[in-house]
Design brief:
Layout lengths: L1 E3 L2 E3 L4 H12 L6 H10 L1 E7 L4 E7 L6 H18 L4 E3 L2 E2 L2 E6 L6 H26 L1
Parallel strand pairs: 4-7
Antiparallel strand pairs: 1-2, 1-5, 3-4, 5-6
Length: about 140
Amino acid sequence: MWKVLGVEAVIPRMANLFEERLIELSKRKKQRQRFLDIVADVDLSYVFDPMREISVFRFDLPSKYSPEDLEFLKEFVQRVLKAAKMPVIEYEGVPQRYAIVLNAEKEEDDYEFRRKHRSDIFKVMESAAEKKKEES
């Protein structure tokens, strides 16, 4: 059975459980409120890479957060995990390799941009067609 910070888990719930456990384990830490404010905006995901046999927890923050906020989050999470004195993730009692990725940049989706502005092109084409009809 998989465990995340000492609690049994199933893979689809790993990200949620990791977040819940971080919040529980941070109860007596300084600057906890700042951590909670940031975590409230985080999109946390979990991915298992079977080729490298590594679990990845990815924190995607909105771009409004500064590099200082990212550094704070990194240090705070490291302190919480170090103080926990248990494996972050384990399978059948064996600690597993893991990585934590912090990201505050949104990837630009070119397709999404074109899809949103597709109607603008159609409007220009329709107005040009209407002008031609009016002229004839």
